[in-house]
Amino acid sequence: MTKVSIASQKGGVGKTTVAINLAYSLARRGWNVLLLDTDPQGAIGLSLVERSFEHRGFFDALCGDALSGLIMHTRVPGLALMPAGNYRRYDQAPVSLDPAARRRRTGAIFAELATVDRDFDVVLIDTAGGTHSVTGDVLWHSDQVLIPELAEPLGLRTLPQILHLMADLQAKQPPTQVLGIVPTMVQGDQPNSASVVRKLREILPAELLFNTVVPRDPVFLRASEHGVPLALLSQHPLPSALIFDQLAAEVEQRLPGLAPAISNRSDGLARLMD
Ligand SMILES: Nc1ncnc2c1ncn2[C@@H]1O[C@H](COP(=O)(O)OP(=O)(O)OP(=O)(O)O)[C@@H](O)[C@H]1O
Ligand SMILES: [Mg+2]
Questions:
Q1: How far is the CA of 164 from the centre of ligand 2 (A)?
Q2: DSSP assignment of 47-76, as one string?
Q3: Whole-Å CA distances, 125 to 94, 153, 157, 192
Q4: Ligand 1 mutation pick, 127, 220, 238, 243, max ligand atoms within 8 A of CB
Q5: Is the distance from CB of 271 to CB of 51 less than 8 angstroms?
Q6: Best substitution site from 5, 13, 16 to test ligand 1's pocket, by max atoms within 8 Å of Cβ?
Q7: Does the residue 175 lie in any domain?
Q8: How far is CA 132 from CA 35, 116, 122, 235, in A?
Q9: Residue 222 located in a structural domain
Q10: Which residue CA neighbors atom 9 of ligand 1 most closely?
């Protein structure tokens, strides 16, 4: 089981969008994936689960709840969710006032994930923007971090902060590695946006940057309105949905221990024969 956090210094860069769509693509490629929401905003639950505020989740686990009742299976084979759960309960619990206890509990939750329910190949973790508090603990206990990078000049200016943090995380035992940086909201026809992607390719080692970039596309807003990954918005694959299959293929190659999936799963939407 590999724990991959999706994190960025800056908010609103597409972390949750990447988490949902990458989790879907990895599951469709044959992996058992848990999409774990550790952001108090609870965007994954709000996007994908009706009446999500009624479901317990990660913040309830921080308060000591066992994980078995917190994992929800989805209609997509291989894809399970753990929503953020009740942040208010966590905020009033002793663990929220004791950073060392919270870090230990986060580690215990991640260790327990390896034993519950079934074998998750990948736990994809959505985080709150920034790198402190709960997100800091989640990054500390992650194996890998995927960093969405806003393809705008402001995005470039905040990149050094998270790279410094990553250098610290790579120095601890066991290290948390950088899985890669993926440019998001790329507008190829806008000189400012295209030049940020060019600059990233100039200044970063090739192994740090994914080849895939996520374009800015209004269909993402439609997908979040309907509460589905982009690939489920239409019977015909939308170009921006296929981007996440490319990203998933790159993630497979970069994750130690994950050989490329043998076969794609069918979700029953497009079966050729019975
Ligand atoms: N590639 C894209 N093209 C167009 N809109 C996008 C794209 N990616 C995300 N969005 C939209 O931008 C907004 C922010 O995206 P998202 O919630 O994924 O960012 P985030 O980094 O998770 O934000 P936060 O830091 O608040 O958690 C959402 O409304 C989302 O639908
Ligand atoms: Mg988010």
A1: 22
A2: HHSTTGGGS--HHHHHTT--GGGT-EE-SS
A3: 24, 26, 24, 30
A4: 220
A5: no
A6: 16
A7: no
A8: 21, 28, 23, 41
A9: yes
A10: 14
Full-model pTM: 0.93
In-domain check, residue 168 = no
CA 14 / ligand 2 centre spacing (Å): 7
| Distance (Å) from CA 209 to ligand 1 centroid | 20
The 10s digit of each residue's pLDDT in 86-129 is 999 999 999 999 999 999 999 999 999 999 866 899 999 999 99
Number of Cβ within 10 Å of residue 113's Cβ equals: 19
Q: What is the pLDDT of residues 251-264, one digit of tens each?
A: 999 997 776 655 55
Q: What is the pLDDT of residue 260?
A: 60
At residue 113, the 3 state secondary structure works out as helix
In this structure, are residues 127 and 15 in contact, taking their beta carbons and an 8 Å threshold? yes
Domain count, the chain: 1
- Domain residues for the domain of 63 are 2-148+216-254
Q: What is the CATH number of the domain that holds 31?
A: 3.40.50.300
Taking the centre of ligand 2 as the mean of its atom positions, its distance from the CA of residue 72, in whole angstroms, is 19
